[in-house]
Sequence to fold (110 residues):
Amino acid sequence: MMMNSYYGKIDKDVKPLKGFIINTVKRLNTERYKNSSLINAWRKNVSSDILEHTEVDGIKGGVLTVKVDSAIWLHTIVAFRKQELLRSMQEGYKSRYISEIKFKIGKIRE
Fold:
C-alpha cells in the first residue's frame, strides 16, 4: 500500500481553525446584538395585546418577519394593524430601514 505524498505537507490555502472560530463567534455576537435591539424596538412600539401573540423572527433586506401564534391573530394584524405597525417600527427602529413587515404563523416563546 502506497502512502499519499500529500500527508505531512502544509497547504497554504488552509486557514487555521482558531481564526475561523473567532470570526464565527464575532459574527454571531453581532447578529445577536442586532436581533436584540430589533426585539426591544418591537416590544416598545407594539401594543401589549399584539405583543402577547407575536415574536420577531428577523430582518433581511428591509423586510421584518414576525411570527404570530394563530391564524386569527394573523388575520387581525394583517387586515387591521399592519400599516400602523410598519409606521411605528419605521419611527422606533432607526438601526436599519424597514420597508415591509411580513407575518407568518409560528410557535412563539412564552
